[in-house]
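Reminder to self: tokens first, then the designed residues, so the page reads top to bottom the way the pipeline ran.
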């Protein structure tokens, strides 16, 4: 397992080892003990699986407020997507800054996004599956969203923003400039 830092403190790219043979490969996609040895000991309580049929589907930018803030460990089942984390830790030197990492079935990379970050992604190919572990349960009362293409964030979504496929909730989310972080 390879654990790499990103430009945002706490956001990690994790690449589990793959054992390839004539059949394909085997990989431990999450091993609590191995991750703890690498300094990441998180008590995950929920596994999520989402499927997006169309390329250019954007989900996010989402967060859950305390007391149900979530760490997330995100990976790709099939297809490929650009996964994005934005620092919303008040007082952080990188507040409002983002990292974007391509996660695909092919590269097997995972992104660890701690509490105190917005999370979202855009699918890069049709029929993309996203799998992620969360350290707290879904709590609709703590659920929040920021508009993905807020100009202050300057994120390159690799698509024309007006062509993004969004939920109604995400299309109506407030701009980052109007957002008050609960972290
Ligand atoms: C996130 C979530 C949703 N739901 C339900 C609520 C709703 O009826 C339906 C779809 O929910 P959403 O539209 O919020 O799904 P989605 O837009 O895929 O939301 C997800 O986006 C990514 C970027 C994240 O980081 C996740 O934490 C989550 O916010 O699923 C659950 O039952 N449990 C959950 O954990």
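Designed residues (183 positions):
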């Amino acid at each position: 397992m390879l654990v790499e830092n990103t430009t945002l403190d706490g956001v990690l790219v994790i690449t589990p080892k793959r054992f390839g043979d004539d059949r394909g490969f085997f990989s431990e996609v999450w091993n609590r003990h191995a991750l703890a040895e690498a300094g990441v000991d998180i008590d995950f309580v929920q596994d999520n699986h989402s499927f997006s049929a169309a390329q250019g589907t954007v989900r996010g930018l989402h967060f859950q407020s305390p007391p149900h803030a979530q760490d997330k460990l995100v990976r790709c089942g099939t297809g490929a997507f650009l996964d994005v984390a934005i620092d919303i830790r008040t007082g952080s030197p990188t507040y409002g800054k983002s990292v974007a990492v391509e996660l695909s079935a092919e590269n097997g990379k995972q992104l660890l996004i701690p509490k105190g970050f917005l999370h979202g992604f855009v699918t890069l190919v049709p029929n993309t599956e996203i799998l992620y572990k969360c350290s707290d349960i879904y709590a609709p009362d703590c659920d929040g969203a920021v508009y993905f293409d807020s100009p202050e964030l300057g994120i390159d979504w690799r698509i024309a923003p007006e062509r993004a496929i969004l939920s109604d909730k995400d299309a109506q989310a407030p701009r980052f400039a109007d957002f008050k972080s609960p972290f």
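The chain is about 5% helix and 40% strand.
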